[in-house]
Amino acid sequence: MSQLHNFTLLFLAMLFISTVMRLYLSQRQIDHIAKNRVRVPADFAENITLEDHQKAADYTTAKVRFGRLPLAYEVLLLLFWSLGGGLDWLDNNIISLGMNPVLTGIAVILVFTFISSLLDLPFSLYNTFVLEEKFGFNRTTLKTFITDMVKGSLLGLLLGVPLLYVILWLMQQTGDQWWIYTWLVISGFSLFMMWVYPTWIAPIFNKFEPLEEGETLNRITSLLTRCGFNSNGIFVIDGSKRSSHGNAYFSGFGRNKRIVFFDTLLKMLSDDELEAVLAHELGHFKKKHIIKGMAISFGTTLLALAILAWLMKTDWFYTALGISERADGYPAYLALLLFTLVLPAFTFVFQPLFSIFSRKNEFEADAFAAQQTDAKYLIQALVGLYRENASTLTPDPLYSSFYDSHPPAPVRIEHLKMQNA
Question: Which are the catalytic amino acids?
Answer without folding.
Answer: 281, 366
